Amino acid sequence: MRTWLTLLLATGFAANTAAGAEPPPVRLIVKPLLCVVDKAADSCNVLFDIRWKSVLPGEYCLNDESVAEPLRCWPRSLTGELRHRREVSEDFVFWLAPPAGVERAAEVKVEVLRVGSDDRRRERRTRHVWDVL
Amino acid sequence: MNIPRLQQLLAVAALWSWSQLVCAQTETPSTPSTPPISDAALPAPASVTPTRPLPKERNWRFGVGLGYGMRTNPLVLSDDIPVIVDLDIAWFGKRWFFDNFDLGFQLADNRIFTANAVARVNSDRVFFGKTNIRYVNFTIAAGGDKLPIVDTPPPPGRPDSGPSFEQEPQELRVPDRDYAVELGLEMLFGGEWGQATLRGFHDVSQTHEGFEISADYSYRWTRGRFSISPTVGLAYKSDDLSDYYWGVNPEEAGVTLQPYEADGGVDWEVGLRTSYYLTKSVRLAISADYERLHDSVASSPIVAEDHVLGYFAGVAWQF
Q1: Which parts of chain B register pLDDT below 70?
Q2: Residue B273 half-sphere exposure toward CB, CA atoms < 13 A
Q3: Is residue A74 over pLDDT 60?
Q4: β-bridge mates for residue B148, sequence order
């Protein structure tokens, strides 16, 4: 009985230790997340408001999919903010990662929606009674 | 249904448009010639994504709108047409296309216009699917004319008619009409100035044996996530088309319905479609349009209102 109890406690301790070694949960908030492009434009010029929060203090770098180097790195801290202007012409990802790490602590996708089309047939309006949109 | 309702709807749409334009987000679409803007005050340098060719558009377009809307029915003894679900189903091949029950073939496509041959179903018939029957008693006026007393319920058994009434209530119903298949040509124009369409269609199903020629213009403004698109249009409907749907044949006429021959004329319409994009595939949509029937149709004994008003508000998904 004592042996089983010891094993159980040891397993629990090991599990707690392993959980403590995992990277803390980080929340990355980016606004806006959508760029709507009409036919007359190729891209949006967006001023992104980027914020992150972490449960435990840590060193993080903000990365942009289209740039090799991080946009900005923060020393050990719980939060971070950045306003970043960028030309957006296709979907891409912002992500947070430790300075030397490859594993992403958090990531957010920014999407591009094209509402026009070069194919004029896709812009035609039907004149049906039931067509309201 | 009356005009003030349209004005209220348009006012709401305009107010929403204004508020969205004022509160538009910080992102602004830029033309290809616009250089990337670098904000020196910001801690990180601005970056520019290299321009890549645009992804190929899918052949299929499938969307669904859920919400509440209505299309008024100008016919007498008719119900308005509720719009709870609006489906958008289209397929575009290299030449052939199917766009919400319009079947088309692209004849020409150049820098100035796109010309298509299109087969479609005339939608005037839809109004005739939402009609009712009413029973009318008649009284004899001093001059000997029969005058209808409307709003009489159908007889439960034998009609309880007084001495001045005809013995049997007469049935008043809107005549049946068939769907017509029409074949025609359309020319689509588009540019930074907006979109315009010219269309000519003729009946090929020997239903009304008439034709329709129409033109419309629309312009879409997009700012941030908000998009607004006003439309104006004109449609000439020939004598045969107008008379088939909106006239009353001598065979259909009776004591409750006088014969009537409708002439051709020009209908006009205005519309406003607005969208607020929540995500790449979901948007809030409000739309309203008003179509004025031409005088000869509006004067028909089977027409109660001289216009058709449509409106819809809801959520639309594009898959």
Answers
A1: 1-55, 136-167
A2: 12
A3: yes
A4: B138
Reduced to 3 states, what is the DSSP secondary structure of residue B156?
A: coil
> Pick from A33, A87, A133: which is nearest to B287 by CB?
A133
Q: B186, B195 in Cβ contact below 8 A?
A: no
Number of inter-chain CB pairs under 8 A, A vs B:
194
- In chain B, which among 13-32 make CB contacts under 8 A with chain A? 25-32
Residue of chain A minimizing CA distance to B234: A127
Q: Rounded CA gap, B251 and B248, in Å? A: 8
Q: Which residue type does B132 have?
A: N
**ipTM above threshold 0.90:** no
The pLDDT-based confidence of A101 (bands split at 50, 70, 90) is confident
For residue B168, give both structure tokens: 């049997």
Residue A102 is classified by DSSP as -
First-to-last C-alpha distance (Å) of chain A: 72
What pTM value is reported for the model? 0.75
Beta pairing class for A26-31 and B81-92: unpaired
Contact between B88 and A133 using a beta-carbon 8 Å cutoff: yes
Alpha-carbon distance B205 to A28, whole Å?
Answer: 61
What is the token pair recorded at A75?
């020393």
**Do the Cβ atoms of A40 and B29 come within 8 Å?**
yes
pLDDT of the residue at B111 = 93
Is B83:B113 a contact under the CB 8 Å cutoff?
A: no
The distance in angstroms from the start CA to the end CA of chain B is 34
- Residues A85, B37: C-beta atoms closer than 8 Å: yes
B115–chain A Cβ distance below 8 A for any pair: no
